[in-house]
């Protein structure tokens, strides 16, 4: 396993290393992931809503956010502690977070928090 920061993750693509570790930076995935956490990432043939994806978001760099919905070749993602929803193409996805680098399981996110149809938060009464 090679430990890479998000800024050097592009190098991974040229090296074709899989799986790899990434260190979390920022708070957009709190409370699931925290700054400094190391996570194990691997490319997958398919991704499903609820997966935590690592992807290239252009000028903003590499992001690690949860997949909310996919349709027509587009993937809609958002950080667990974020407001914005990002729309990305599958070719920009670098992989799925499998676990913490030490093998510990990623905590589950509350079920039914998101509507897959709209990629919007469900309202509760």
- The low-pLDDT segments are 121-125
User: Biggest β-sheet: count, sense, barrel?
Assistant: 8 strands, mixed
CATH class: Mainly Beta
Instruction: Give the N-to-C terminal Cα separation.
Output: 46 Å
Described by the principal axes of the CA atoms, the overall outline is: globular
Assembly state: single chain
- Helicity level: under 10%
Which strand order do you get reading across the main beta sheet? 1-2-3-8-4-5-6-7
Task: Summarize the structure in words.
The structure is a single chain. This protein is mainly β and 125 residues long. The chain has a single domain (3-106), classed as Ribbon (Umud Fragment, subunit A). Helices cover 6% and strands 38% of the residues. The chain is built from 1 helix and 10 strands. It has one helix spanning 9-15; strands at residues 3-4, 20-23, 38-42, 52-56, 62-71, 74-78, 86-89, 93-100, 114-115, 120-121. The protein has an 8-stranded mixed β-sheet with strand order 1-2-3-8-4-5-6-7, with helices on one face. The chain has a two-stranded antiparallel sheet with strand order 9-10. The chain is globular. Mean pLDDT is 81; it is low at 121-125.
What is shown here, in short?
The protein is mostly beta strands and 125 residues long.
Helix and strand arrangement:
Blueprint (H helix, E strand, L loop, with lengths): L2 E2 L4 H7 L4 E4 L14 E5 L9 E5 L5 E10 L2 E5 L7 E4 L3 E8 L13 E2 L4 E2 L4
Parallel strand pairs: 1-2
Antiparallel strand pairs: 2-3, 3-8, 4-5, 4-8, 5-6, 6-7, 9-10
What labels would you give this structure?
eight-stranded mixed beta sheet; single chain; Umud Fragment, subunit A; two-stranded antiparallel sheet; 1 helix; 125 residues; mainly beta; 6% helix
């Amino acid at each position: 396993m090679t430990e890479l920061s998000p800024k050097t993750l592009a190098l991974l693509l040229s090296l074709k290393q899989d799986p790899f570790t990434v260190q979390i930076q920022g708070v957009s995935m709190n409370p699931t992931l925290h700054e400094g956490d190391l996570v194990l990432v691997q490319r997958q043939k398919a991704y499903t809503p609820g997966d935590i994806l690592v992807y290239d978001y252009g000028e903003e760099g590499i992001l690690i956010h949860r997949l909310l919905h996919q349709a027509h070749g587009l993937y809609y993602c958002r950080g667990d502690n974020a407001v914005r929803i990002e729309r990305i193409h599958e070719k920009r996805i670098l992989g799925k977070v499998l676990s913490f680098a030490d093998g510990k399981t990623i905590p589950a996110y509350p079920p039914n928090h998101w509507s897959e149809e709209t990629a919007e938060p469900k309202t509760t009464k």
